[in-house]
Specification:
With 84 residues, this protein is mainly α. Helix content is 65%, strand content 0%.
Length: 84
């Protein structure tokens, strides 16, 4: 199998998490990230349940990122108000 090198920029906190969890799993960072990508690909192309779980995980992470950036939903309209 051919391999390639990827250079990415991510938040330091996330990079630390990846290093820590890779070490806990006894994997190199490259192997760990590769396995994460393979699992994501399997979920993306898998059963409807796997695709739904993947979408929910992405939505939850994005929601957390949104709130951590100080953009809370306090005072926002709910879906019933929007689509009434």
């Amino acid at each position: 199998m051919a391999t390639t090198q990827l250079n990415v920029r991510i938040e330091e906190e996330l990079a630390s998490y990846l290093r820590e969890t890779a070490g806990e799993a006894g994997l190199t960072l490259a192997d760990y990230v590769g396995r994460l990508a393979a699992a994501d690909r399997a979920a993306r192309t898998g059963s409807p349940e796997a695709r739904e779980a993947r979408a929910l995980a992405f939505a939850a992470a994005e929601y957390q990122r949104w709130n951590n950036a100080g953009r809370s939903e306090a005072g926002a309209m709910n879906m019933g108000e929007v689509f009434g």
